[in-house]
């Protein structure tokens, strides 16, 4: 290391270095202090160590260094040196929650400094004003600092000032001004070596992208910023706060809560900034509220309110109070005092110019409605409804929700439906900017209330057609367009390959009884990487897909009866479509039906093993109860033809062939009426080649595959080392028929990592999404391949729903564990029917009747279902 104490300039270089290379700056500052420096040099070294501890370590240690730096600067009689340290100390004091002392330090710093130094002090005070939520004061100090910084060509501090001004503009909802400042700042950063500031610029662009409504770009930029920070070995508390906000907007509240809590724990361990802890607590409270954990949200928000109040951060405290009231309402609390509190929060947020003000007015209106205070509700909802015509999608959604509630309170059914339609249109536009099916599915949760309101009104009007239209309006929307596929993304392909290898090694070790914690950690890391890469993709679809045309549906049904189950206020309503009309029948309780379906699943699991024959009557009895709850009076009007069942997400695990009225029928299941229509109109590929795949480890060895190979003659057969994922995907792309005999694994925690086991590891949903066109017909002959995760408003994620938007018109899969030996005759009979020209549903019906009559074979037949219309 060169002798940094030889002159003033080398020592002063340590100050910009602390943001370019923090670790090196810290080491050099410690070296300076060991060399008996002059007061000026010692002041700089202590300031550098104080900045490092303030931003990356223990605030108590930071304050000791900075006070020492201040005293040394005063001893050296350097007014500008003292002013500079006073500004750094002021920032640290504010982050420690000592707001009054921090602002007093800035007052002395502004008075002591002159010219260039004073401009830097003003910039840092502007930053503190932003931290405190005093946005007008922040903009004023930046306005005073910028001309001086530009005049002396101080590119680094000019870029910092522009970045700060942009951040303040974002807090006030002025996105275009923010983007202009961020762009100008980034051009300056390109001329400097300030790597930490460059990372901050990328992070800031991510926040701007989010405020502009581009969630994929925001996630990509925040991930890039994290990689840059990691190279500098610096903590990323502010980044965590921003990513929590983006994750919540994407419907990923549990992930946001986990990230915020992890950052809080780390901050507590190192004694870090009190201001950051308060902001992280607020982020955690918002995430917990969105995740349905009301009591967790109350606890986090209450602590955040107390911290912000102690730090004199009124802007932040008011936002935390909003979340606290929202969480209390979610926990079932209602009172006149809460209406007044929400209204006061709304008024204060509006005075700050906060974009959250309409949300607070909507909250006040909701509570007032629940208490029957219609006049008060109308006043607050009218204020919230003003946001429906402008601003980012969440603000417009808030406005349309308020307008819908106003219309309902006024008894205007037409007004409710119009507001619901307009609000869901906004969310549709936003949802289709997302390329990843996971994000599209989760984003629908934001429209659940509007869809439910429209269904309530349609039911009250007594119009089954309208109820059907609104049930379809927000159901299985993730299937309305294929996800964006990035086949040329080398990082994603590399991650998928590495994930497959690690997963295969972990599985092999587990089968040998060896512990695999290191492999499992690496597997989880790769999962996070793959998930991040797919979330970066923007939407490619121009619109949100076709709306259901009920008349067209009825025309296309012919002798088919389509049964859509709508859920309104916890009750099932059976919408029977056919013979040119839609009829409604009242079903039972959704909760009872879900519980019964779980009992049936438990029974089928037992029946998959010989010796459980005594369970068969119990399972059949549960099937009869499910029929009463889910089909009710519609049973008598099903007619003799095929039946299509369209269940809500909560009922996706019902084995529909078990219901007595459906056992002997040609039966298929579809996530929505619209997706059934699209499947029916899907044309098979011209060559129609069959592909047969046999994965490892099956109890029967996939015994049906050799017989099917003989039957089809020209089929492509992949088994042994040939059944590796790249080869399997290549053959599946555009195939007419695919039969995959492979172990299935369902991941409830991460459904897009549900998998089929191939020779080289798991074939996951993310792999299928890379197909240009998935096979026209797919038969998945092993356990749990039809299991799905219900997310968002009424969306399903899993193997089956990944295939349907990609060109697959029909799938046969199992929603329960099955007996491998009993599957073989079922599959052979199924393919016999296909060879005779039958559809999947027809062939599966005939295959069930051809099975032996024992309990194991009957349970196996019930576990499989035909999805789609091929």
Automatic annotation (TrEMBL):
The lineage of its organism: Bacteria, Bacillati, Actinomycetota, Actinomycetes, Kitasatosporales. Residues 621-868 form the CHAT domain. Pfam families: CHAT. This is CHAT domain-containing protein. InterPro entries: CHAT_dom, TPR-like_helical_dom_sf, TPR_rpt. SUPFAM superfamilies: TPR-like.
């Amino acid at each position: 290391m060169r002798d940094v104490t030889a002159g003033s300039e080398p020592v002063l270089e340590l100050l910009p270095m602390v943001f370019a290379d923090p670790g090196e700056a810290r080491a050099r500052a410690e070296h300076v202090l060991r060399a008996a420096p002059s007061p000026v040099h010692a002041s700089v070294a202590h300031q550098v160590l104080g900045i490092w501890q303030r931003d990356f370590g223990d605030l108590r240690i930071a304050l000791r260094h900075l006070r020492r730096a201040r005293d040394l600067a005063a001893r050296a009689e350097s007014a500008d040196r003292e002013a500079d340290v006073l500004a750094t100390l002021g920032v640290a004091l504010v982050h420690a929650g000592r707001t009054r002392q921090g602002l007093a330090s800035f007052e002395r710093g502004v008075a002591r400094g002159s010219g260039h130094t004073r401009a830097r002090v003003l910039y840092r005070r502007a930053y503190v004003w932003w931290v405190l939520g005093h946005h007008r004061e922040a903009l004023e100090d930046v306005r005073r600092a910028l001309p001086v910084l530009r005049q002396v060509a101080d590119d680094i501090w000019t870029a910092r000032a522009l970045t700060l001004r942009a951040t303040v503009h974002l807090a006030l909802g002025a996105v275009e001004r923010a983007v202009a400042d961020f762009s100008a700042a980034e051009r300056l950063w390109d001329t400097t070596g300030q790597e930490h500031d460059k990372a901050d610029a990328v992070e800031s662009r991510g926040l701007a992208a989010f405020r502009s409504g581009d969630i994929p770009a925001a996630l990509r930029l925040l991930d890039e910023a994290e990689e840059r920070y990691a190279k500098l070995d610096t903590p990323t508390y502010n980044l965590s706060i921003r990513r929590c906000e983006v994750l919540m907007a994407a419907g990923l509240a549990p992930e946001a809560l986990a990230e915020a809590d992890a950052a809080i724990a780390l901050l507590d361990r190192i004694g870090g900034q009190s201001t950051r802890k308060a902001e992280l607590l607020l982020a955690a409270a918002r995430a917990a509220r969105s995740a349905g954990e009301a009591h967790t949200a109350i606890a986090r928000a209450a602590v955040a309110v107390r911290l912000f109040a102690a730090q004199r951060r009124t802007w932040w405290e008011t936002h935390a109070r909003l979340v606290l009231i929202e969480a209390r309402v979610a926990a079932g609390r209602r009172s006149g005092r809460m209406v007044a509190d929400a209204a006061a929060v709304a008024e204060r947020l509006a005075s700050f110019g906060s974009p959250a003000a309409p949300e607070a007015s909507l909250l006040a209106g909701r509570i007032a409605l629940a208490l029957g205070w219609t006049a008060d509700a109308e006043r607050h909802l009218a204020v919230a409804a003003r946001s429906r015509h402008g601003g980012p999608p969440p603000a417009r959604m808030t406005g349309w929700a308020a307008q819908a509630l106003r219309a309902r309170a006024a008894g205007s059914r037409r007004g409710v439906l119009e507001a619901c339609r307009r609000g869901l249109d906004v969310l549709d536009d936003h949802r289709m900017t997302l390329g990843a099916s996971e994000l599209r599915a989760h984003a629908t949760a934001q429209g659940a209330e509007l869809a439910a309101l429209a269904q309530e009104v349609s039911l009250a009007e007594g119009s089954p057609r309208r109820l059907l239209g609104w049930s379809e309006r927000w159901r299985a929307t993730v299937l309305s367009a294929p996800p964006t596929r990035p086949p040329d993304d080398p990082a994603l392909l590399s991650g998928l390959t590495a994930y497959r290898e690690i997963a295969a090694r972990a599985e092999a070790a587990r089968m040998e009884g060896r512990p695999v914690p290191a492999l499992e950690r690496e597997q989880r890391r790769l999962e996070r990487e793959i998930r991040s890469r797919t979330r970066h993709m923007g939407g490619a679809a121009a619109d949100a897909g076709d709306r259901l045309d009920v008349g067209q549906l009825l025309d296309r049904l012919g002798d088919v009866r389509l049964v859509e189950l709508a859920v309104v206020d916890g009750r099932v309503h059976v919408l029977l479509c056919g013979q040119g009309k839609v009829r409604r029948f009242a079903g039972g309780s959704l909760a009872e039906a879900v519980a019964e379906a779980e009992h049936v699943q438990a029974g089928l699991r037992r029946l998959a093993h010989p010796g459980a024959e005594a369970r068969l009557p119990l399972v059949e009895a549960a099937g009869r109860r499910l029929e009463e709850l889910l089909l009710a009076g519609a049973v008598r009007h099903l007619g003799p033809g095929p039946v299509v069942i369209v269940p809500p997400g909560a009922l996706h695990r019902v084995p529909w062939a078990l219901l007595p009225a459906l056992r002997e029928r040609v039966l298929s299941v579809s996530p929505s009426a619209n997706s059934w229509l699209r499947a029916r109109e899907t044309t098979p590929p011209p060559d129609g080649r069959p592909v047969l795949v046999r994965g490892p480890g099956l109890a029967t060895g996939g015994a049906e595959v050799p017989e099917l190979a003989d039957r089809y003659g020209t089929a492509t057969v992949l088994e042994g080392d040939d059944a590796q994922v790249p080869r399997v995907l290549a053959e599946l792309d555009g195939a007419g028929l695919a039969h995959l005999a492979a172990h299935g694994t369902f991941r409830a925690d991460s459904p897009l990592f549900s998998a089929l086991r191939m020779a080289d590891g798991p074939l996951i949903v993310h792999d299928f999404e890379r197909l240009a066109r998935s096979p026209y017909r797919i038969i998945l002959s092993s356990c749990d391949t039809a299991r799905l995760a219900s997310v968002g408003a009424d969306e399903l994620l899993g193997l089956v729903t990944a295939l349907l938007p990609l060109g697959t018109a029909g799938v046969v899969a199992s929603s329960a564990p099955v007996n491998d030996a009993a599957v073989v005759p079922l599959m052979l009979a199924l393919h016999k029917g296909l060879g005779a020209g039958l559809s999947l549903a027809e062939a599966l019906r005939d295959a069930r009747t051809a099975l032996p009559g024992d309990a194991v074979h009957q349970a196996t037949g019930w576990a499989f279902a035909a999805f789609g219309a091929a």
